[in-house]
Amino acid sequence: MQPQPPAPPVIEGVEWVRPGPTRRQLRNDVLLALVLAAASAASLVLYRATGYNQDGPWWASLVWAAVMTLPLALRRRFPGVIAVVASAAFIAGAVLYLSEALFSNIALFIAIYTVGAWGRSRRRAFVVRLVIVLAMFGWLLWSLIYFSTVQEVAPELGREGFLSPYLAYGLVNVLTNLLYFGGAWYFGDASYRSARERAALEQRTAELAAERERSRRQAVQLERVRIARELHDVVAHHVSVIGVQAGAARRVLSSKPDAAVDALSAIETSSREAVTELHALLGTLRADGEPEPTASTLGIAQIEALAAEASAAGLPTAFAVVGEPRQAPTLVEASAYRVAQEALTNVRKHAGAAATADVRIRWTAERVELEVANTGIVRRSAGEAGETAGLGLVGMRERVAATGGELELGPRARGGYLVRAAFPLQSDGRRPATNGDAR
Predict the structure, then answer these.
(1) CA 18, CA 4: separation in Å to the nearest integer?
(2) What kind and span of H or E run contains 372?
(3) Burial class of residue 207 in the structure, from the number of CB atoms within 10 Å of its CB (0-12 exposed, 13-18 middle, 19+ buried)
(4) What gap in Å lies between CA 168 and CA 174, rounded to an integer?
(5) pLDDT, tens digit, 9 for 90 and up, residues 356-374
């Protein structure tokens, strides 16, 4: 089976062009033309046997039947031309007394219908049908008027009176032709509209399928970006802790073996935590198919332990909670923990050996605020110059924006650096905002 040629897009205000016929449709048209030709020839035999149009030569009637029906094999390719040929042959057959009145009417109806259903240009289709209909009615009215003066034609139909039998016969012919041509016109346009609506439906279906596929790919990409951000946070935090503790252990290894043991124990603990978190994230990436969203058990309640770990790693860190802790959304819990982790990691990396940190959590009725401040020096790495933020700060912005919160970054007036993030406890429809400069 030949597939239907792709339909052009349906655009409002732009004329839609119906795609050309398939090979199967063309084969069906050829078969229809042959069947109508054979049926028309058989009908001619029957009509001539009744005395209808028997004066014309046989061969001329057969030629007329072929001209009337066989061009329908190309009706979908050249609908306007075929309709004009069929109309001219119909009139010629009647004038020359060569026609039959059954299958010729069927062929003409199909030809006019095809102009409306398959015409490439709607304006041309309208004009062609209008010309044919006007020509047919002009010929019909002329014939009725002409034969009204010829008493030998239908002598049984009287011509006298306001509504004479002949006038009634003429009105019946007019009404019959109105229904005939009106039906061919209406059903042709209906077929075109149906094809257009079907093409529009297929177009919308394809657009929805493409949108679903695009949304699926975006969801996968967003999840992978989130995992990459988690990997950055885990590696940056634990490696910075390990580096600080390793340096401390090296300095006191000979003079204070117990302190060196404590530092090595901290390295061991941090490395195990890093391996555990990395194993979970990498397991997600190795999974077959699309990565499933991973739930984190780290939240606001673990920020105190994070501050204690920073203190143990050599960064004096104060921790305070203001207000009554409440249940926060899972995304807010994980985002707040990662922001605090990244902020403390940046203090260890950039603020200098004499820096101290202060971590505060403020609970209000509508939101929870996280503030990480340090007293160290403010430095920019080479990759963070100008308007381009480091990956860690980009991750902070993305995490806070994903919750609909607000993020403030920047140096403090009295020295040091401040990270303040406000997370809504309930969605309030506000647009996320970030203030301050990137570090």
Answers:
(1) 11
(2) strand 367-374
(3) exposed
(4) 10
(5) 899 999 999 889 999 999 8
